[in-house]
Amino acid sequence: MSFNQHAIDEMNVLLQFPTDSRMSGIKIHSDAPPATRDAAERLFKRGYIDAIDGGYLTDAGLEFAEHVQKLHFALTTDL
After folding, report:
1. Is the pLDDT of residue 35 over 90?
2. For FRET with 64, which of 30, 44, 46, 49 sits at 20 to 30 Å CA-CA?
3. CB atoms within 10 A of CB 28
4. Alpha carbon of 20 to those of 5, 50, 54, 64, 79: distances in Å?
């Protein structure tokens, strides 16, 4: 089993969100790569972010983003 490109794109979008404050969000501009815009749309449709172009993390999105950050840290930490 492996991550498909959609899952990777969604995790990359989630990594852009700050998880230390609920007062900060992101804006995905119309000139962003299509894969990024599509990933944000999927995250919005799943209820992880509150706007189709980024916005803020929902409660479920914050939990998901924290897991993605932990996974990223685990996979990128030098041995």
Report:
1. yes
2. 30
3. 20
4. 27, 17, 17, 13, 26
